[in-house]
Amino acid sequence: MENKFGPLLKEVRRSKQVSQRELAERVGVDFSYISKIENNRLAPPAADTIIKICEALEVPSEVLLAHAGKVSSEMKDAITASPAAVRFMNEIKTMKLTDDEWGKLSDNLKKLR
């Protein structure tokens, strides 16, 4: 499967009119690191770095995290702290939900509160 994270990062960065050097400075990495990620010469960074990138670009972290196949350490902690949450995630994993179905599930969960 082709890594789509790098091209998406490039697209988002350019849409925000931020140079690689400026983004690297904001995130605290070398600009060549950003270049290598955008050109798929490196795998997507760790979730915490992706979150810093999103903060620097002022975009929600969900999209970039999803394209990298990662979740934040905060999310991982929330899920793994509860056996019921782990069971729930294991059950829905087999369902192969679409984005629309995930949205509906989220809406229904909000109604429970």
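the 2nd protein, sequnce then structure:
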Amino acid sequence: MLFAYGTFMRGYVLHPLLTGGSTFLGVGRVRGRLLDLGRWPALIDGAGTTRGELYRLDDPALLAVLDREEVGYNFERRRTVVTLTSGRREHAWVYRYRGPQHRAVVIPDGDYRRARPSRSPAPPGRKQWR
């Protein structure tokens, strides 16, 4: 499973990578602070919670595709506990930020969709945000 809190969510530029190889399971929260780095969000350890979407990865090769987008851009994939709005808890992968934070702005409510409403996704294969 994967917890998406930013550009992998429905309506954002990297979401097409999840289509066809995953199943949307619901909205939930994870522990941690959400930062706005300007062109993308970043989840870090800290007080608070971050809102996002939980996906079951149906295609085993999909995780490697997602890693190619995230790992190496100051992000690392780690396990976390997601609490869905129903109260159910699930374990999932999440990409946590480990890079510089000097220009970051905290998103106080942990909701990237509210801070940066979704835009039309870029055509497949175009990295509009990175």
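The chain is about 10% helix and 45% strand. Confidence is low (pLDDT under 50) at residues 121-130.
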